[in-house]
Design a protein that fits this description.
The chain is an alpha/beta fold and 510 residues long. The protein is 31% helix and 16% strand. α3 (125-140) packs parallel to α14.
């Protein structure tokens, strides 16, 4: 399939996906996660037959025999372009209880999410769904060098992140993998003091910059991905001098907007309107959209969730206000935007890092994306498919790849050093190339737009599949966006030594 073929096809049929009443208003706490999208919420599912997962072995593989190959796809334990990530013990290997959470037969690994939050049941459930699917798939292939993953789902229920970190330490988790807690600035001192590494997503500055943490898709405080800004400037040059911001009144989204403003200033863009709104939504958006129109805004920068974005776009349509573009985050790659706004969403542009997964016809053109959908369908039927879930799955792949490289002598230090030594990461092809070596914002992006009430791939120049990758696509920032709030220790120290140093230097979490 050529790039032209990609661009000519809608990513999701008009009107597809779940419907949500435009009058529904989430409470402030409920809205917080949706707006972190900044970390993501997009739903979709493949309808294809799930036969390409590679898990068709008819018996337990022996230590000296490679896992069998499925005629329909990769061998058991292989994923995307990563090759083997899970499998039986090497021939002749002797497995021992080599570190915290590791026995001769198992590895205890924790995942944090917030589905038990009473204000929004199921919050970030996709992280648990991805964790369950990955661990079952991996264990069926032989586990990590013959050790099965013993998954501990640690529900932080929005406000209990610190308590779940303490549980993970007290109960002996080997690592935390593939999770995210909304209030993840809490508990970092405890995590570092017990030497518990994390390969997960993060939102708050204290967690983003914390030691002993690797993000599969880095959220760097000192740099920003701006590839779409360059492209929008070429497409709508006059609009860059008439920019308006609409930002949810929350620390995470305000910080994100501040980073974007610094980048825009460096590019010579002019901001003529800048307002914040209740993160739970507004009873009426009329005043905001009239303000944008009166200010002559031609490019709107949206900083919140897709449900509220749909309400704003409908309010714009009601007063016949049509800016040149509305820019939103990858979290708005969600069927709810189309279901709620329809053609009123036309002219909305989304910069994303994940390979598009809403359209089965496009998903099947990418081995990793189709394999992820197949694994989810087989091992977590009915599980949620979403941007954050894809990132969680990528984190599990990173963990498994690094742990497998350690062989029989599995230790936190070895996994950490192996993962930390990987310079570029795509999750086997699930998402754009990420700079893990430096933790910088990615230089690669894919652009998605709404046209005729459907998601479409934008006609951007591409040089890595559907992605545009160029050094100019990220920019270094000068502002202080929270880097000084975290405790860090030189990476040359082993984890046990780092644990002592961190315990001495860290202050109790609030």
């Amino acid at each position: 399939m050529t790039d032209g073929d990609f661009r000519s096809r809608a990513l999701v049929p008009a009107g597809a996906g779940p419907t949500t009443s435009r009058t529904a208003r989430l409470r402030t706490l409920v809205a917080t996660l949706a707006v972190l999208g900044m970390v993501a919420t997009a739903c979709g599912r493949s309808d294809d037959d799930p036969t390409a997962s590679g898990d068709d072995a008819t018996g337990e593989p022996t230590e000296s025999t490679a896992p069998p190959t499925s005629p329909a796809g990769p061998a058991a334990g292989e994923f995307g372009d990563l090759g083997q990530v899970c499998g039986p013990a090497p021939a002749g290997a002797t497995l021992t209880a080599s570190d915290t959470g590791v026995t001769e037969t198992s590895i205890q690994v924790g995942t944090i999410a917030d589905p038990g939050f009473a204000g929004r049941p199921g919050l970030n459930q996709e992280l648990f769904d991805s964790a369950e699917a990955f661990t079952k798939w991996c264990n069926d292939a032989g586990g990590i060098n013959g050790r099965e993953i013993d998954l501990k789902e640690r529900d932080s229920k929005f406000t209990e992140h610190q308590a779940r970190i303490i549980d993970a330490c007290d109960e002996g988790d080997f690592m935390l993998v593939g999770g995210l807690g909304v209030i993840d600035d809490q508990g970092q001192s405890e995590r570092l003091a017990c030497g518990l590494p994390s390969i997960s997503s993060a939102t708050n500055p204290a967690a983003v910059e914390a030691d002993l943490a690797i993000m599969p898709v880095p959220s760097d405080l000192g740099s920003l991905s701006i590839g779409d800004l360059h492209w929008l400037a070429e497409k709508f040059p006059e609009a860059t001098q008439k920019i308006g911001f609409l930002t949810a009144s929350m620390a995470v989204t305000i910080t994100s907007a501040a980073k974007t403003k610094e980048a825009m200033a460096a590019l010579g863009w002019e901001i003529v309107y800048d307002e914040q709104f209740n993160a739970a939504g507004e009873a009426s958006w009329r005043g905001y959209v009239e303000g944008l129109k009166s200010a002559g805004v031609r490019g709107v920068i949206w900083g919140a969730d897709p449900t509220n974005l749909a309400a704003v776009l409908n309010a714009m349509a009601e007063i016949e206000y049509h800016p040149d573009f509305v820019r939103a985050g990858g979290n708005s790659y969600d069927p709810v935007l189309i279901a709620e706004a329809g053609k009123a969403a036309d002219g909305t542009y989304l910069m994303a890092s994940n390979y598009p997964f809403l359209d089965p016809d496009i998903a099947k053109e990418n081995l990793a994306t189709q394999q992820y959908l197949d694994i989810m369908a087989e091992y977590s039927p009915g599980g949620k498919i979403a941007n954050l879930g894809v990132q969680g799955f990528s984190a599990w792949l990173l963990f498994a790849k690094a742990a497998t490289a350690c062989g029989a002598d599995l230790t936190r230090d070895c996994v950490w050093e192996s993962a930390d030594a990987i310079p570029d990461w795509t999750g086997g092809g699930l998402h754009a190339r990420q700079d893990l070596a430096n933790g910088r914002a990615s230089q690669c992006f894919v652009e998605i737009e709404v046209k005729d009430g459907e998601f479409m791939l934008s006609d951007i120049p591409t040089n890595e599949g559907v992605f545009n990758c160029d050094p100019k696509n990220s920019i270094d920032l000068e502002g202080d966006f929270g880097e000084e709030r975290s405790v860090r220790i030189p990476r040359s120290l082993p984890i046990r030594s780092r644990r002592t140093a961190l315990s001495d230097r860290s202050e109790p979490s609030r």
